[in-house]
Amino acid sequence: MHRAAVESVFGLQLSSRELYFTPCLPSHWPQAELTLRREGRSLRFILKRATAHEALAATAAMGAQQLRPGQALRWTELPDRSRFVIPLSDLPAPAPIGTHASASVQP
Description:
This protein is an alpha/beta fold. It is built from two helices and seven strands, in the order αββββαβββ.
């Protein structure tokens, strides 16, 4: 039951090597946090309703990385205690120079 709730609200899709989020947080939740423990790793994810600028500031303040909704993450390659901010906004964050943004992700 707990797993179904987490997968539903956070939109967590977890495979043996990758994970991604397609969150569906209630509109009145400003943020939600999830700590995932797998194979000796503790991974912290903060889903935050914010503008792209606010999300980038929160990411930098936490010493975290930004993870976009739907973006696949190879969790098996991450160090223990990795942290991520997942911005939830209608405004897309600017893509880093030299990269292409994509709305389609294959799990």
